[in-house]
Amino acid sequence: MSPGWPGAWERLGVPPEELEEVSGEREVLASLPRMKRKKMYVLEPIVKMVLKGNTSNDNTSFLDSEFRYTLFPVFYSIVFILGLTANSYVLFVLHRLREAQTMNEIRIYMTNLTVADLLFVCALPFWIDYFLRRGDWKYSDILCRVIGTFFYINNYCSILFLTAISVNRYWAVTCPLDAASSNCWRRGALISTIIWVLTLSFSMEYLVKPGVNKDQANVSRCFEGYHEDNEDSKRFLAITHLVIVTSFFLVFFIVVACNLLIARALLIQSPSQALGSVSAKPRGVKRQALQMLCVVVVVFIVCFLPHHLVQYPWTLAVLQIQEGWGSTGWNDTTRCWLNDAHQITLMLMGLNCLLDPVVYCFATRRFRLYIKDHLKRVGKGRHYSDTIATHISMTSQGLHNEPGAS
What we know:
With 406 residues, this protein is mostly helical. The protein has helices spanning 4-11, 25-37, 43-59, 68-100, 105-132, 141-174, 176-181, 184-208, 231-267, 271-275, 282-319, 332-349, 352-363, 365-379, 387-396, and strands spanning 212-214, 220-222. The protein has 15 helices and two strands. A hairpin with a 5-residue loop joins strand 1 (212-214) and strand 2 (220-222). The radius of gyration is 28 Å and the shape is globular. The chain starts with a helix and ends in a 10-residue tail after the last helix.
């Protein structure tokens, strides 16, 4: 007899001499007619109720993907080293450009995006240790909540700040005079504040609710699985994820639309319009602006789109809502396939902290010019000095009206 059944029968008040050796749901149900012959009719609905509860627990068992315990530590170690180096250097460059007063709204978005990336990178050592221990969390529940929240903050701050950069570039290309005459610094600070408030507000739930839970093998899982036991809580969680996924696709549509309109405006620009720019190299400016558009769209398609395509079906597979809205009836093979796909998309989302610095290089010519000059000096063995920032400031004055210059 399986370990779970004696306790259930004892709770039902079945005398030991009436207890039959059964090992599963089918055998228990098969024994009900014999129980009826012994005048135990009242037990049939109760037994079925107990069995239904036991089956529900089996269906909501923890879904796992063995490959992640080998792949994730290696992948996240690479992301940690490269991401920490790249984003720290980006902050250094942005700081020097701020001193030279050569960047405004775009610099604000880039700085905030870099901070969000560094939050994620700083949490990676804990995730590396977690997967090396085969998904067994050995730290406090509060720390689990914090590093799990960093993951969501990074991803959704990245999505929103990349959207802000796309809208800003669209405005600079289609309405250059309005963009140049407006208070860019104040607008950038306001939009950045709104993005952080929204992201932190939606992430607050993850800081309040328990982050660590035990699975059937008594393994402490961090930010994996759900604590909701009743159907209403599961259904509410499914609706929440549906809203998040739908919101992402609305933002994704805005990003694609802005970048397509920017590309259209650049490609149909007449030679006289291009030559009317202060720049002596309009073709190069146009090419760099188009490259920036491609990089932003690639980041969305590679890092964020796969996750949000899989997220909602995976949520339903994990919750296993038994009846009504949200119920699926998927078998174990489908659920395992969805979980494997979900794990891969989580890994792809981690790439955004490496690709964001590439966006910066194409988003502003001053950023590229600074890095090029700095690396050239380092390559020649010359020490960095404030004259670089001064040189960039003077050079950038002739680039102010270019589409890729801000």
